[in-house]
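Q: What structure does this chain adopt?
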Amino acid sequence: MHSCIPSHFRVFYRRTAAGKPLCYRSMPRLSFIRIFGSEKSVSTAINNAAEYRTIEDDIMTNYKDLGLVNSKELFKKAVKGGYAIPAFNFNNLEQLQAIIGACVETKSPVILQVSSGARKYANSTLLKHLAKGAVDYAKELGCAIPIVLHLDHGDTFELCKSCIESGFSSVMIDGSHHPYDKNVELTKQVVEYAHKYDVTVEGELGVLAGIEDAVSSAVTHYTKPEEVEDFVKKTGVDSLAISIGTSHGANKFKPEQCTKSPDGVLLPPPLRFDILEEVEKRIPGFPIVLHGASSVPVELVKIINANGGKMKDAVGIPEDQLRKAAKSAVCKVNIDSDGRIAMTAAVRKTLMENPAEFDPRKYLGPARDQLKSLYKHKIINVLGSNDKA
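A:
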């Protein structure tokens, strides 16, 4: 019952004769006097351990206490500077080490993304402390980069609320699977709650095809530019994810949707920059987000398949198109599948070459290094966020 109380409140309670908790939260001294009758009784009540106790475990965690930031100022700078902030998904220690290492070495701000599935996998309490550890780790490495902890594809108000209460500095509420009016209603509800705690909110218009964790759609529904101004105005969101042809997962397109390069590599249809440009005209300077923006590196897929994998017809978004998008109002680019592919390639290769190996550090270490190298490349050559921390 105390999970929605901000961390700067200290909460005390006693049990009534009926056994029901009677709660008081910290407030100005005069208010306490009105409740307890005198300043002396306040002191007595607070110090009487037999009758009152501090509720520490159930108090809401404020992201600022973890050293995190929200995305508002980062997005303003990115839109103005013509680059995009990397939004890298993580759910374990090695991924986090790689992300922070890459961003510190390139001096890039970063958004640590956690999906609902990743939160269940890693445990919400551990994630909170991992985020705090990431802040301290960056400082230890020599650069206190701005770090956002963001919920990726939250689909209910309750999930977003829970993440805000556990220290997230940014949340996405994805109501794109609902009819337009329901999407507006749900998004507005999350925004109104999140903004009480200075947490930023990302909404979505349009639907991406593909599968990633619990998010899936068989077809793409492009964002309708004529809806964006109304949506932003009614909901109060801080950023907007749009659909212009990116797609979730490693098999973003069917082979029949693609053409082939001279060396046989599948090339997807180009992104709909006409939609992006129309959106920018309607909400100039507003932060835009691209989901499903992994490039599915051919060389890493080859390593996986050469070492026992079966990634058939894997195809991603060409990096030159992502760089073009990052120079526009697209100020956040989500990258998840590429990270999974990089780690899997390193793990498969290491175990194939060393079949007797059973120490996880011996294959997760190379996986971490491969991931770090990939993310440094993305930061410098695709997103342009290096030296922007």
